Amino acid sequence: MKRFLILSLALLAAACGRETPSLLQGYGEADYIYLSSQDAGIIGELFVREGDAVEAGARVFRLDPNRLNYNAESAQAQRAAAAAAVRTAQAQATLAQRNYARSAQLADRGFYSRARLDADRASLDVANAQLAQARRQATAAGAETGLAQERLEDLAGTAPLAGTIQQIFHRQGEVVAAGQPIAALLTPENMKVRFFAPEAMLAQLPVGTRVMVSCDGCAQPVEARVSFVATEPQFTPPVIYSLDQREKLVFLVEARFDGATPIRPGMPVDVRIAE
């Protein structure tokens, strides 16, 4: 019993004397923008290399246009055929309208039977229905032509924001599926650091807190702001909830930079709360 009491007092003293670390360890990480095409195809040209700095709107890649050129030409041909069908249906509807009007006048004078007038009316209804159908098909063909032209223009992939080409996944001549990433773009605002804080420090690290980030190659610390704090702890390594091991209970914290930074993905960093 006496030995148990002494051990308990020693553990309590160690827990009370444990200091909160002033430096927290972490690493650089990035949210990449993956550039891809809306269509499958063959990469015809690559305008960048890994590490290149690009401005917003700069061309990054272009797919081979041959296949989509064929699709656009086919859509234009269908549009022309649909327009011709509308003209034919319009002429037929006009003729049916004239025939029905003449038949109605003759029927009023008793020179035309009611049955023949009904037949002319039915022919007019059919002609009007065919005209409406032809117009719907022409509208659909026009939309398809516009879509084919847009897809042709979208063959050139551009950078949506200024940044650096971090990685190229496919090269000229390779086949890519629709939506498959071709290159990864890193913008300054998408660079962040992830670090781990003990439970005792969470009250000092609410979202928006200013922190200073240092690295081995940094001339001076870089300011960042806490953007995320995990709600669940992590264990490194997995341990039980004992007094000796509770200091290994840490929470993931993320902080983002306001502008350009020398921190790169995967780079080890030290983080401290700004004064």
Q: What does this protein look like?
A:
This protein is α+β, with helices and mostly antiparallel strands and 275 residues long. The protein folds into three domains: 19-30 and 188-273, Efflux pump adaptor protein, beta barrel domain (Elongation Factor Tu (Ef-tu), domain 3); 34-64 and 155-186, OB fold (Dihydrolipoamide Acetyltransferase, E2P), CATH 2.40.50.100; 66-153. Helix content is 36%, strand content 28%. It is built from three helices and 15 strands. The strands form three sheets. The chain has a six-stranded antiparallel β-barrel. A four-stranded antiparallel beta sheet has the order 2-9-7-4, with no helix packed on it. Helix 2 runs antiparallel to helix 3 (114-153). The protein is elongated, with a radius of gyration of 36 Å. Residues 1-18 and 237-243 have low confidence and may be disordered.
Short description:
The chain is an alpha+beta fold. It contains three helices and 15 strands. The strands form three sheets. A six-stranded antiparallel barrel has the order 1-10-14-12-11-15.
CATH class of the largest domain: Mainly Beta
Helix percent band: 25-40%
Q: What sequence of helices (H) and strands (E) makes up the elements? A: HEEEEEHHEEEEEEEEEE
Rg over C-alpha atoms, rounded to the nearest angstrom: 36 Å
CATH superfamily of the largest domain: Efflux pump adaptor protein, beta barrel domain
CATH architecture of the largest domain: Beta Barrel
Strands, count? 15
Helical/strand content category: alpha+beta
Main sheet: strand order: 1-10-14-12-11-15
The fold-level CATH name of the largest domain is Elongation Factor Tu (Ef-tu), domain 3
> Which regions have little confidence, pLDDT < 50, spanning 5+ residues?
1-18, 237-243
Shape: elongated
Euclidean distance between termini CA atoms: 47 Å
Quaternary structure annotation: single chain
